[in-house]
Every structure is written in C-alpha cells, then in structure tokens.
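Worked example 2:
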Amino acid sequence: MNKFVSVMLLPLLAVCFAQITLAANPSHVEKLKTSKQCPRCSLNDMDGKGMNLSRAKLRGANMAGAKLSGVNMRGADLAGANLSNAQLRMANLRSANLSRAKLARANLRGANLRGANLSGADLSGADLSGATLTAAKLDGANLNGAKTRGAKGLEGSEEK
C-alpha cells in the first residue's frame, strides 16, 4: 500500500509544487523603496506601481514577472537582472544598464530604451512594439521571436 501511495502521490505533489510562485521578499522590496539599492534581491512578481527607480542599483536582481509598467527606471543598473515576463509597458528605461539581462517574453510596449545598454540581453519573445531604441546598444542581444512593429531606432522594425 505505501509503495502504491508513493507512486501515485509523488507526481501529483510535483505538479502542485511546480505551480507555486515565489513572491517578492518583503524586506527586499522595503530596502529598494528606502535606498534604491537591492542587488541580487528577490523581487519577482513585485508590484512597483508608483515607484521611482531612477538610478536604482538592481544588478543581478530576480524581478521575473514584476509589474513595472510606467515606472521611471532611467539610468538604473539592471545588469544581469532577471526581468523575464515582466510588465514594463511605457516604462522609462532611458540610459539603463540592461547588459546580459533576461527580458524573455517581457512586455516593453512603448518603453523608452533610448541609449540603454542591452548588450548580450535576452529579449527573445519580448514585445518591443512602439518602443524607442534609438542609440541603444544591442551587441549580442537575442531578439528571436521579439515583436518590434513600430519600434523606433531598430532596423527592420516595420516588418516584424
């Protein structure tokens, strides 16, 4: 009986645990709000509505699924940060350092990325429709499957 229960329940438990999403660490969110510095912090699924993160130090932070639409992140250091599936619609990322950042499937519609460093960034499947990428550094960036219709400053953006 124990063998049967183990064989039947283990796959079910694995599915349940796989669907658990870790939330942002509240102390990390508070640290970010008070100091604008939280490198390598756990900020996934954070709601940053109304925050001003200009020049924030977030190098290597986990911000997967974060809600940052319309947030001012001008000049922020997000090198190596995980922003996969993040909502960054209309965010101000002008002159931000996003080198080697993970932005796979991120919503960057209408975002201002003017002069941003996106060297080596993973933008696969990201939505860059209507984004401004003028003078952005895209050396080695992965744009496979990215939506770029109407993006400004990106060669060939009209046909994708």
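The domain at 37-160 is CATH 2.160.20.80 (Pectate Lyase C-like). The radius of gyration is 18 Å.
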